[in-house]
Amino acid sequence: MEALECIKTRRSIRKFKKELVTKDTLNAIIEAASMSPSWKNTQIVRYNIVESEDLKKDIAENGTLGFEHNRDIINGAPQLVVVSMIGMRCGYERDGSFTTSKEDRWEMFDAGIASQTFCLAAHDMGVGSVILGIFDEDQIAKAISLPEGEKVAALIPIGYPDQECVAPKRKTTDELMRVM
Ligand SMILES: Cc1cc2nc3c(=O)[nH]c(=O)nc-3n(C[C@H](O)[C@H](O)[C@H](O)COP(=O)(O)O)c2cc1C
């Protein structure tokens, strides 16, 4: 797929077929996502793939802050990607001080770029995804035994799409662009 077509046709997919995304396809998606730019090439993002039905259900039921919409998406997806970030690197100097006034918020910036690249690569391979921002990060970190010093950035349920989606309305370029 051409890059622009991939960018323009990617949609958030919230209903999936039961079929699992294979290890080979996951490898190809993550290899593509590994080409994302990152702060001083620190590459702090990790992709934790939850396939266990019990673990996925635990996260859906107890890690979505009572938001049933996200609970149902996770329960209906064959796999859940927990995107995590290794702390104390991105946005930091070697002596542990922050480089800029944005402090460690560059971590989320890098995780966002990586997540979008992951979703675009997945779309190119026919795999649907949706980025979820409403979740209980402490519950999920505990449930997946996230290594000390890592934080959960986002959840991305994935699978083969079982719905056709129309793009929600976008702002015009006149609204988005300011030339000065
Ligand atoms: C940071 C972020 C958080 C999001 N959180 C949720 C969420 O919790 N639940 C959900 O269903 N969609 C979530 N979305 C998906 C957006 O609703 C979706 O991207 C937007 O409506 C545009 O639709 P499209 O992705 O199909 O173009 C999130 C997207 C982003 C980037």
CATH level-1 class: Alpha Beta
Hetero groups in this structure are: flavin mononucleotide
Share in β-strands: 5-15%
Pairing-aware structural class of the strands and helices? alpha+beta
* Global Rg: 17 Å
DSSP helix fraction:
25-40%
CATH architecture: 3-Layer(aba) Sandwich
Say how many strands there are.
Answer: 4
Low-confidence stretches: none
Write out the strand line-up for the largest beta sheet, numbering strands in chain order: 1-2-4-3
Q: What's the name of the CATH homologous superfamily?
A: NADH Oxidase
Q: What is the number of helices?
A: 7
How many structural domains does the protein architecture include? 1
CATH topology-level name: NADH Oxidase
Q: Look at the structure and give the mean pLDDT.
A: 98
Label the overall shape.
Answer: globular
* Terminal Cα span: 35 Å
Spell out the helices and strands N to C. HHEHHEHEHEH
Structure overview:
- There is one protein chain.
- The chain has 180 residues and is α+β, with helices and mostly antiparallel strands.
- It has a single domain, classed as NADH Oxidase (3-Layer(aba) Sandwich).
- The protein contains seven helices and four strands, in the order ααβααβαβαβα.
- Strands 1-2-4-3 form a four-stranded antiparallel β-sheet.
- The longest helix has 19 residues, at 106-124.
- The mean pLDDT is 98.
- The protein binds flavin mononucleotide (FMN).
- Flavin mononucleotide binds next to helix 4.
